[in-house]
Amino acid sequence: MNCCTRRQKQHQDRPQKAKRQDLIYYTMEEWNNILKKPFENTIELHVNFRQNFPVNLRSAIWVWVIDHTRLKNIYKKLIDIQQNQQILKDIDRSKCSNPQSLKNILQAYANYDTRLGYVQGMNIIATSIFEQIQNEELSFWILNYILNILDYGRMFRMDLLYFRILDKRIKYEVPKVFQKMDSYNIDSQQCFDFQLFTLFQCCRKEFALRILDVFLLEKECIYQFFNVRNTIYYPHQNTIIITKRNFVVQMS
Fold first, then answer.
1. Per residue in 56-69, pLDDT tens?
2. What's the whole-number mean pLDDT along residues 136-151?
3. Between 1 and 215, whose confidence is greater?
4. Gap between the Cα atoms of 43 and 78, Å rounded
């Protein structure tokens, strides 16, 4: 068997990726049937999450995705273990329709994840989840899925060393932008920190929810924002340089 023939045979033996025309867009009935089965991660599911997501089933789909991580009969116990005073301060800023439920969700998470505890910014994510789900305990488990299972909590644990490195990159790669930021006493942490809750503060609600839909399934795709944001500085540096302080942060 010559080299070319061998390569052709190896190529034929590989599992073929599904072509676009072969992918299945679920009907509403198929979505409902899928939600009755255990969660299974497939190519078709990813395509449907991105291109054929039924927003009227959003709450049920979120719960379906994270259901295997839920533990029974511990949520109520977590609420009363220990009170976090910072949570009480952040409740009013969150604009949640049910402040008591939000307090319980955040308190339960702080007691559940003792390594991380509660960090400012979690209240924004928890509020967005609760307003969609309208169920306190399920909102807690979705928050846990994002911060603990998907390890988005590491964004809240991020060492300041990361931002010092980022400041140096901006300084040497786009020095004019760095000088502008420095003149207004703006650092990279203000521009890049905790993008998931910034998403809910700065974007239209439905757009932010669609990002969260995909994030729950595709996990670390959200971290690509760091690389994307770095590429924005250079093409927009002339605009950034002539803007006022508040717009420097917005452009980044």
1. 999 999 999 999 89
2. 92
3. 215
4. 37
Which of 181, 107, 199, 174 has the alpha carbon at shortest distance from 144?
A: 107
> What is the pTM for the complete model shown?
0.68
Structure token pair of residue 179: 């000088």
Distance, CA of 249 to CA of 190 (rounded, Å) = 7
Q: Residue 156 is encoded by which pair of tokens?
A: 């809240």
Tell me the two tokens of residue 66.
Answer: 């994270």
Residue 65 vs residues 22, 36, 58, 61: alpha-carbon distances, Å: 24, 12, 11, 6
**Band (153; pLDDT cuts 50, 70, 90):** confident
Considering the chain, what percentage of its residues have pLDDT values greater than 90? 31
User: Which amino acid is located at 227 in the chain?
Assistant: N
| CA 5 to each of CA 16, 179, 221: distance values in angstroms, whole numbers, following the listed order | 18, 59, 38
Q: Which two tokens stand for residue 31?
A: 């979505």
DSSP state of 220: G
One-letter amino acid at 102 equals L
Side chain identity, residue 103: K
Q: Say whether pLDDT at 235 is over 70.
A: no
Average pLDDT over residues 27-41: 94
Does residue 172 carry a pLDDT above 90? no
Taking the alpha carbons of 163, 164, 165, 170 in that order, is the dihedral positive or negative? Answer: positive
How far is Cα 170 from Cα 160, in angstroms, rounded to an integer?
A: 15
Q: How many residues does the chain have?
A: 252
Residue in the block written with tokens 């977590």: 78
- Helix pair angle (205-218, 122-133), 10° resolution: 100
pLDDT of residue 19: 47
